[in-house]
Specification:
The structure is a homotetramer. Chain A is α+β, with helices and mostly antiparallel strands. Chain A contains 9 helices and 18 strands. In chain A, the strands form 5 sheets. In chain A, strands 2, 12, 13, 14 and 15 form a 5-stranded mixed sheet that branches. The first copy, chain A, starts with a strand and ends in a 7-residue tail after the last helix. Chains in contact: A-B, A-D, B-C, C-D.
Chain lengths: ~400, ~400, ~400, ~400
């Protein structure tokens, strides 16, 4: 089979040489991330249940989870949640197959509780959340699709990916990871963080928002001290990634004199005012990068069988990484894959690869190698699906 | 005041010279667009009510509208809606001010009904929709913000914009507009359309999805004929914008022999299986463009006073247009504006302008002029706010 | 067939000779009555649709409608509704039959809107209510039942009825009816009324609660005058039914000096604080009578095919009326009918008739006649079902 | 103070001498009972919290809890719940007092979980229920009421009570209690039971519905055997209460041959098709008795301060018991208490006491004693309120 793969040379100044870069990452306890996490964990749980019962994944898309903020009264030493966080698990899934009913809602609730435990360790799930489940049934046309051997694309849409990550991107990503580790020493750190990185030439500004947990903070003085500890730790930690100048700040909107600080009972702003939705947060590489190609598609919660909005975004990310790693002379690679509704997913309408080359690179050779690598991935697209089942690919 | 505005030259191949381009537009009746439209129309109605009652816009963000698909049974000549479309108007708004209660829900419902009438002319709002309103109150900290003269940014986030539109972008955008006009002659055209444009070098492929309205289609033959009429019309219409080769297709997933076609009762896929959410569809320029800088921020429904996620995205779009128009030697311009929570919105953390220049351009002159134009817009940022109140800026 | 019908003589002082009597009627716009009305009108609409499509009534019970109060700001001359009244149409109904889908929700919403128009003429349905529909599917076991010739009882439960109405009962019932007529002259009268009658020997006290409609009341003085007009009218009107002394009062909780009066925008207290539920209001004779046998069963919204909670209550009411009318020597008659789940509905577990006789009556004759009349009704129980379909039997 | 207390002699055949009697009790796991239990336990928890924080009970009414049935797939040895039971905790409560916010929803959820544990021991609350809380705020007028010394009646309504219980009533009541005890030996007995007693002269028919729990039943043969064991036990147990003939039956709608039996996963029919609502089940004496005076008022969940619908029903029950116990010559006593909105609750509009006397009784003496006892209760009405706070009075 001849696939429509295009490799194009891009005469573009590499990201590190551009003057300005903006990068953001929402932590795993951010309401949008939690929504993504719930959606994806439910899809994964359904996949496993379908496989166990029927040997095949049945149609579902659970990508509409909503988190409606609660109301809380945090206070140093420990406050209280006034109104619980309302979590609506929704979407569509096959509920009956070959006469057997699948307990879709029960599975979803079980998966949701587990995800919440992992993502928000200080949340009292039983009393501070309402977990509602309203998962409907899909349209019959779509359900047909799954009978075919290689599934057909469910829609006309596209996926994008690029590699490698820039220095600033790595720093932003790793800062969030490091805060989670630091939490073991400083339990006041909530999982709801947001790291915004701005690079101007060789100066990187990190603005961190971190929901502090009230029961681990005894006073305003304690709070101020903890902020300093965190900032200092992050400044030291991030210096390993760059020779650029880094300036880190945390909870910049605090007004210490007025006592207006970023304090929470549960470690997430969802307890007070901040809603969350699927697909509003990090892309599949864990980042939001307005200066790089991005897809708007919500990948979390979509079925990994025929939903090209999910499959092609993950494929583009994975393939771009591989290509950047394996082809030495590539400086940067950008991939876009376009589907057309009804076509087998291993034959995209078009797969476009743009490469920024290092000096002296042989474009003809790069072209051949990149095309081949891409073709391999498409040939074995079921690998991507299996990586999703096994939870090996992050979606946020 | 000295604002942090950076102008940078970008050595990048202009979009028209790149080999591949992907562009998408969701029509005004697409579930995601309807969600955006509802969110924005409610915010606008609230702004007007607040201004009328108190002479000032009060805090609100109504950017969480959800559309949960119904269930229908379309059939040639006219079918029926089985389960109505559930529309949840949600978000937060000031409900009491100076002892006066504002009928927030009633205002929201009124605005929503009007938007639905405009966007989905064949929808029987009374019987085919459930309009639910659950608009809460915001957190008090945020409400304080509005007392200050120039409002402070509500968050650390960014806006992006670029200009001018490429040929393919114009074609995709205008195709959707033209379908709405064509609807007057061919009433079977539903407002829920999706236009996907892919350009490979000098060949443009338009894939249109269009929800056809059953009562205006008498039979499968009629349906096939209407599709041909539409495709032919669009092919002729779009040829004015380009000398490139255009190929248009419509409803490519149809299986005419099996009678499986894209037929609806109401003109929107929300009647059957397709949910909608705010911020999942078109960006402020009306397009989704993975090869161009994009913000993930949902702009619709956010308050135009201090929500930088809205203001900076609209500002970046408007300013980039102006800069591209007024500075002759600019081929392409890309703008990114970053806020920091708590800073006045007219003093962004950074405003970055990247320019691709025409041959022979004087970068120093461009730099001065672009900076000046940007500075003017920031100086007069209340203009953007007023344009939003008056509904002069589209958000989707 | 020999049915288990028992006739028993009751040596009891007739109600008119008892010293104290308590009687209540909730008007058609009272939140509980509106809930009953919605439930019943939806059931009736479904019956008609099922009959039209399939020639038979299919399983359904729509007896769970909920009315959640809104929030309003009434004021003389016309106030506003702040939060709409939330109306949840719920229950269960057959949604698919012989492969055909029935648009259950659409039918329910249509019926609900019509009932609201009839019951609350000043309610702006489009803007002051949220009509939500969540009608599920019944259990399959119950659905089977409908195939049999004479349906089997869906449950073990009972119905009760009595006749004739006492003087006080008639007065309370008719007072509510008269207020609706008076509304044509005094449009300020809302349909949400509650009439409480207490008789102590020969003195009857009528306490009326009436939601006044603000746009038809110009001032507090106007309000006071209207109350006087209404009370005077009712005093005159009710005197026709009795030679006893009647004292009528209206809106006794008003505090005129403080301006705290019973004013509404829409004519129902559901706009502000008062929820409504099915089965909480009037019994099938239109009254609440704690001194008389009553069933707790909600009759509104239940299916008229096999739901004995509905059928037996209506049958007991109708049969007791007939028996009281046709058998001269009966002073009072009380009927109780008990079903057993699974038995044909025309063969109740027991039908008990208690009679209070006039002096000189022949109990043996009464026994024979009453048993015969009861037997006839059971023999022709489908008549009751048809009267329900045709809307000839009130349930509240 | 002279209260309006009337004592009247009733020349009525005592219940035991009437030919027919109908009595019903819904078990504590019946959906209607669970709804009552939830409503009441939430009110009690709020009372305690208000008392602890402010030394006074604040306004609330949590009498609108809804239980929407789930969907299950029971099977011998253990089946599964497909859709969870949806439980909506609703009503109104004071959420802010003297500037302090009360975590009303959190309290309600905590109380609800405890009640479910107590009432349905085999229900997996975390995975088989959705506990939603939407508790609003009351109207301000009502909130004022609580400032006065003796609260004023919130409405014009009435309470009723009678004593003593008849033999059949005792049997029905105790049968349900005994089933709960028997559950320790026969764990297959679910808490969702319904006991219907019909007495015809000297023959009592008990029809029991009992939700059997699938994991404790290995097969259809086991099921049949368990039913026999239960029936035999109940037959023996009930014989202590009467010399009349008792016939007990259980799950009469079972069709053993078809395998259609009353099996559940959780021990309640709420898992499959049976909804529950407050105020639809047992009266304050734990029974439904159509041949006795009954109030339709839902007592569970109402505030014990000024809600006469609750207070007067409990008072009428308690006072009638006391009067029947203390005044020897009374055979039966019936009490009705009527409030008028705005009057202090210790001064009802009227308290009517009807007595059926034993032969040779002295009516004048009875009249004096009964009036005195009633007057004492009204004088010390706060006792009733305290008994409610302490959970000493059952409401269902």
């Amino acid at each position: 089979m001849k696939r429509n793969i295009k490799v194009e040379r891009l005469n573009q100044r590499p990201i590190e040489l551009q003057e300005i870069e903006l990068v953001e990452r929402k932590g795993i306890g951010h309401p949008d991330s939690v929504a993504d996490g719930l959606a994806e964990s439910i899809s994964r749980a359904l996949c496993q249940e379908y496989l166990k019962r029927f040997g095949a994944v049945l149609h579902h898309n659970t990508d509409k989870t909503q988190i409606v903020a609660g109301r809380s009264n945090p206070s140093f030493g420990g406050g209280e949640v006034i109104c619980p966080i309302y979590i609506l698990l929704t979407g569509r899934a096959t509920r009956i197959f070959k006469g057997e009913e699948i307990p879709v809602d029960t599975i979803a609730i079980r998966a949701a509780r587990r995800l919440l435990e992992e993502s928000l360790s200080n949340l009292d799930i039983n009393h501070h959340t309402i977990i509602d489940a309203k998962i409907g049934m899909g349209s019959s046309d779509l359900r047909d699709v799954f009978g075919r051997k290689v599934p057909s694309a469910n829609d006309t849409s596209f996926g994008v990916g690029y590699a490698p990550l820039s220095e600033t991107e790595q720093i932003v990503y790793n800062t969030e990871r490091e805060l989670l580790k630091l939490k073991k020493k400083i339990p006041a750190i909530g999982e709801d963080t947001k790291v915004m990185g701005m690079r101007e030439r060789d100066s990187i500004n990190l603005t961190i928002a971190c929901a502090m947990i009230d029961k681990y903070v005894s006073s305003i003085e304690d709070y101020v001290q903890l902020k300093e500890d965190i900032v200092q730790h992050i400044a030291e930690y991030t210096s390993q990634f760059t020779s650029r100048k880094i300036k880190a700040q945390i909870n910049v909107a605090d007004d210490i004199e007025k006592g207006s600080v970023y304090l929470t009972v549960t470690g997430t702003s969802a307890e007070m005012g901040d809603d969350g939705a699927v697909g509003r947060g990090n892309r599949t590489n864990g980042l939001i990068t307005p200066g790089r190609p991005m897809s708007l598609e919500a990948t979390s919660g979509k079925n990994p069988i025929n939903h090209v909005g999910k499959i092609y975004n993950l494929l583009a990310m994975v393939a771009s990484k591989k290509i950047a790693e394996e082809i030495d002379s590539i400086e940067e690679v950008y991939i876009r894959i376009l589907s057309q509704i009804g076509r087998p997913i291993d034959e995209p309408h078009m797969a476009g690869i743009q490469v920024v080359l290092k000096e002296g690179a042989d474009m003809v050779k790069v072209q051949t190698e990149a095309e081949e690598l891409m073709n391999d991935w498409l040939e074995n697209i079921s690998q991507i699906q299996e990586m999703i089942f096994r939870g090996e690919l992050n979606t946020y």
